[in-house]
Amino acid sequence: MTEILTAAALLVTAAGLLSALAAGVISRRGDQTLPVLLDFLTAAGLIRLAADVSWNSILVAAAVITVRKIAAIGVTAGPRPSA
Questions:
Q1: Which residues of the chain have pLDDT under 50?
Q2: What gap in Å lies between CA 80 and CA 16, rounded to an integer?
């Protein structure tokens, strides 16, 4: 089961990179691209946590979620480009 979850985390990470790239190409705005990538990385971190429940995995998942929250605050607080 661990191999399946590890492979799933890798696939989710790859899907996140591709989705963020597609969002960046379509919107050309980083404030819409970064949350997409971070949501996928959060999901991959949680899948990895399910595969290996250890303090190291818990800390990695918590760090990814913290970075996601800080980045979301930074993106929403930043200046908006004029249309």
A1: none
A2: 24
> What's the 3-state SS for 7-70?
HHHHHHHHHHHHHHHHHHHHHCCHHHHHHHHHHHHHHHHHHHHHHCCCHHHHHHHHHHHHHHHH
Where on the phi/psi map is residue 31: left (φ > 0), alpha (ψ -120 to 50), or beta? alpha
Residues 6+ apart with CB under 8 A from 20: 33, 34, 36, 37, 40
- Chain centre to alpha carbon of residue 32: 13
pTM of the full structure: 0.74
